[in-house]
Amino acid sequence: MIRILAVPALLLAAHPLSAQSSGEQTFIFDDTTVTVSAPQTIGEDVTTFTLDNGMEVVVIEDHRAAVAVQMVWYRAGSADEPVGQSGVAHFLEHLLFKGTDTLAPGEFSSTVAANGGSDNAFTSYDYTAYFQRVAADRLPLMMQMESDRMENLAIGEGDIATERNVILEERNQRTENNPGALAREQFMAAQYQNHRYGVPIIGWKHEMEELSLQDALSFYDIHYSPNNAVLIVAGDVQPDAVMALAAEYYGTIPREEDLPERLRPAEPPQIAPRRITYTDPRVSQPYVVRSYLAPERDAGDQDTAAALVYLAELLGGSSFTSALGQALQFDTQTAVYTSAGYSGDSLDSTTFGVSIVPAAGVTLSEGEAAMDKVIADFMAADIDPAAMERIRTQLNAQEIYALDDVQGRAQRYGAALTQGLTIADVEAWPQVLQEVTAEDVKAAAELVFDLNQSVTGWVVANPEQAQ
After folding, report:
1. Which residues contact 58 (CB under 8 A, 6 or more apart)?
2. Superfamily of chain region 34-251
């Protein structure tokens, strides 16, 4: 049976509650009492509170359209998988759409669609997230179904066999058939020799083939619990109504008392450059990539990460204005493509990357030498103040435009809270970006550009190109 909800009043329905002197609120449902921490309002439209089972809730108000987005983020990604079970986090993400004790296989998404909404899920190194975008008056139904699969997943051996074939085919399409993706896997494995970031999110194929029902259920039982989850509700909603719904549907789920501390294997100090040549006849054009270990955004300390955002733009953002683009694509025509990239959204150390596709007649070694010269010249020269202001203006505009994307805002908070940041860090980030100076950028570059913490990769179609 597909459930269709058309009772807007449910969203505002009053639940039994009494305000506590401490600011806490208590809800009573049958024989279950749920206590919710005093809500905190941050900025103009963000409210947060915590259920007594440990589930953190963030409400982002945007009343311009009668739409709501619900996202449940688990602090469990591929980097949290047991050794030898790579891909189980992503595998479980697929299995959560199979069914529960009360929902038939596929009924979850069918119900969302029948109510005019959309839903999906995604897995990364540090989290797994599930979301629905629906009319605001359908939020209670979404919470009912999402909370149901948090504790009542019902899967069997038949589901395992079917979905294991699905994820293996997904790997075939996205990775095995893509030489660039295969090369990236090898480079990441070289960059992270002990940390789980060196293992692909989708998993190594030989380990995916062995994933079992018990592997999936074990990961589900320990990680899919309210005290390991963050609920984000964004859109045309009121915080007090969301609190009542969250208490009813999620607050009655018991916390996982045996939830382990989130510890990852530490990466040993890298004391020498690493190099890889990846050869695949399907490579259409040889190229050079290099990644350096780089710091991530940390709670209360986002300055270096912000400076690295500027460094990526200055060095390899626009082909027309960046140092690599101007020097190699226009001034000398050494390359047909250059880039630099950095993302600080990571629980543990991340990477800063640069790349170059040499022009015809330019060898990889010549292209790499030219790339290194641009980096050296950049480090030796002063940064153009006009370039800093241009990037500052661009970043400010991006942050303003991002406020129009309800789901994008929900994703920002969900990713941050599952990667060690706080709501205050998310709120402060736009201002942190605006305060970056040229001196900050140079200091960050000095920190990152250490060849002893780098992996340089050549991607070629045949050995003759590797020169």
Report:
1. 46, 47, 48, 230, 231, 232, 233, 413, 414, 417, 423
2. Metalloenzyme, LuxS/M16 peptidase-like (3.30.830.10)
